[in-house]
Amino acid sequence: MLKVTILAILQGVAEFLPISSSGHLVIGQHMLGIEEPGMRLDIFLHLGTLAAIFAYYWRTIRTLFGAAVLPAKAEERRAAWLYVAKIAASAMPAVVVYLFFHDFITGMFENARMVGALLMFTGAVLIGTRYLPRGDREVGFLRALAMGAGQAIALLPGVSRSGMTLASARAGRVDSEKAAEFSFLMSAPLIAGAALLELLKAEEAGAQAEIGWGLTLYGAAVAAVVGYVSLALLVRALRGSRFWWFGVYCLVAGLLTLILV
């Protein structure tokens, strides 16, 4: 239970704060002596953070769904479908990278030292956002694709998904809160799709879960609660000027990983 709790907290914190959840899970597993936490636990930890996204942005999701599917004004319906189209477009780079480089990316998860180096790369990018001007733009199609490219790079463990997408949005002078909302809503289809794909693979291979259902659901619940709090903290940091502080943490964490692992 202690190990599952630690991994769930790591997932909940690092999925949303720009410090790389995949990297921290690799390092956490290495430090705890867990060779493989089990596919089912990994899937449900991600589903827990997906639930946090739905809970935090419930009003936006409800409005989008209502305008897109239920009777609504033509202008509202068009705006809703346009937003959904931008989310779909943002997913394309990650899908292409996953299909062509899946084996290479999977192999990276076994190299904790490489994770440390990529954490330092994330740190450098985040610190660089300190010198980018703020803006008030909407997320257009080109910026959605650019954020999608950042999301694709973040398939590598140690590269923060939220860090890359929000840095891309800052470079395009997108409003901070609008960027955060789009960044996390665009991640929802990929998280759900990846979880379903891994679940089908596990079923097809007849993989045996190393951790029972009770601890698995407990871990998902912890990841959801911690994830919701982390998401709220990140949005608050974006409103101020403290986003780049996470880059300092990533640099230190990456350096310590290279030294200690």
List the defining traits of the structure above.
mainly alpha, globular, 261 residues, single chain
Write up what this structure looks like:
With 261 residues, this protein is mainly alpha-helical. It is built from eleven helices and no strands.
Concise account of the structure shown:
The chain is mainly α. 78% of the residues lie in helices and 0% in strands. The chain has one domain.
Task: Kindly report how far apart the N and C termini lie.
Answer: 24 Å
Low-confidence stretches: none
Number of strands: 0
Residues in helices, as a percent range? over 70%
What profile does the largest beta sheet have? none
Strand content: under 5%
Rg on CA atoms, Å: 18 Å
Counted by DSSP, the helix tally is 11
Mean pLDDT equals 87
Tertiary shape: globular
Number of domains: 1
Label the structural class.
mainly alpha
Order of helices and strands: HHHHHHHHHHH
Give the arrangement of secondary structure elements.
Elements (H helix, E strand, L loop, with lengths): L1 H13 L6 H12 L6 H18 L1 H12 L4 H35 L3 H17 L12 H13 L7 H11 L4 H30 L7 H27 L5 H16 L1
Helix pairs in contact: 1-2, 1-3, 1-10, 2-6, 3-9, 3-10, 4-5, 5-7, 5-9, 6-11, 7-8, 7-9, 8-9
